[in-house]
Design goal:
By secondary structure, this protein is an alpha+beta fold. It folds into two domains: 1-67, His-Me finger endonuclease fold; 69-105, no CATH class. Helices cover 38% and strands 12% of the residues. It is built from six helices and four strands. The chain has helices spanning 3-10, 59-65, 70-78, 80-87, 89-96, 115-120, and strands at 29-32, 37-39, 42-44, 54-57. It starts with a helix and ends with a helix. The relative contact order is 0.17. The model has no long low-confidence stretch (mean pLDDT 93). Bound molecules: zinc ion. Zinc ion is lined by residues 16, 18-19, 21, 57-58, 61.
Length: 121
């Protein structure tokens, strides 16, 4: 791992900034916490493309978050269960058979759960 990636990795001691999954040393993404976007190959919000704004993320969180800000990403995840109930028949069956229990839990990201402080100790 090069020094730039190691500095990003060390921000969470190798956890996904969002879901908290332990990252393997290969395959993780450096996510722009404040989003950037590219239109016709040209970066929008280039001020967000700096090392202080890069956090380690698992590939799936980074891909789902895409160019969203954190509150839009939270909103998207908070609707996953609604979408499962609306769209996925086997999900509804599994729920009826008691295989799945919905918690109604609010979406909290790893970096919001005090995990950062725990990692620094
Ligand atoms: Zn993740």
């Amino acid at each position: 791992m090069n020094l730039k990636r190691k500095a990003i990795w060390d921000k969470s001691n190798g956890h996904c900034w969002y879901c908290g999954e332990e990252l393997s040393e290969r395959g993780w993404h450096a996510d722009h916490f404040l989003p950037v976007d590219r239109i016709d190959g040209k970066m929008t919000l280039p001020e967000n493309d700096n090392p202080d704004n890069l956090v380690p993320a698992c590939a799936s969180c980074n891909i789902i978050k895409s160019n969203m800000d954190i509150e839009t990403f939270r909103w998207l995840i908070s609707n996953f269960v609604k979408r499962l109930n609306r769209d996925i028949t086997v999900y509804r069956h599994a729920k009826r058979y008691g295989l799945i229990k919905e918690t109604g839990k609010e979406v909290k990201f790893w970096f919001e759960e005090g995990a950062l402080d725990a990692e620094k100790k």
